[in-house]
Amino acid sequence: MSHRLMFIFNAIAVAAFGVVFLAMPETLLNFFDTETYAATVFVARFMGAGLALAGVFIWFAKDMIEPQTERTMTIALLTSSAIGFVLTLYGMVFANVIRANGWILLVIHILFILGYVVLLFGITVTSNKNQPQQYKQTF
Which of 1, 25, 28, 116 has the smallest C-beta neighbourhood within 10 Å, fewest atoms? Predict the structure, then answer.
């Protein structure tokens, strides 16, 4: 997987959540079984604007070709996903503000964490399927 592809996935996910939080905060808050007070809806709209902006920023960052810039963006997005995972877990377990469907957010954060760790540390998975097998004969 390339940095560009990972940035595209991240930009789409972040921008999609941002647009929904901006346009229909009550719907998304109800999906997670969270209170929908006027202040909560207002703050959700602000968060949606921030997420939409982050999505656009990540979308433009996908075309950067300098390795150091890609690495810096990868570290930043990995950190963001890790913090999002911890906050979501805290909101589900301790604060009890995300009472339904929080597992979806956890899975999204885990997928991005794994993707960015693979990119950051250069982990590759290869198959020996097409290489000829060499067998030792032991008698």
Answer: 1
Q: What are phi and psi of 29, to 5 degrees?
A: -65, -40
Six token digits for residue 84:
């999002």
Residue in this structure with the two tokens 């602000």, named with its chain if needed = 46
Q: How many CA atoms lie within 13 A of 32 on its CB side?
A: 23
Q: Which pTM does this prediction carry? A: 0.83
Question: Tens-of-pLDDT digits for all 139 residues of the chain?
Answer: 899 999 999 999 999 999 999 999 999 999 999 999 999 999 999 999 999 999 999 999 999 889 999 999 999 999 999 999 999 999 999 999 999 999 999 999 999 999 999 999 987 666 666 666 665 555 4
Distance in angstroms (rounded) separating the CA atoms of residues 4 and 60: 10
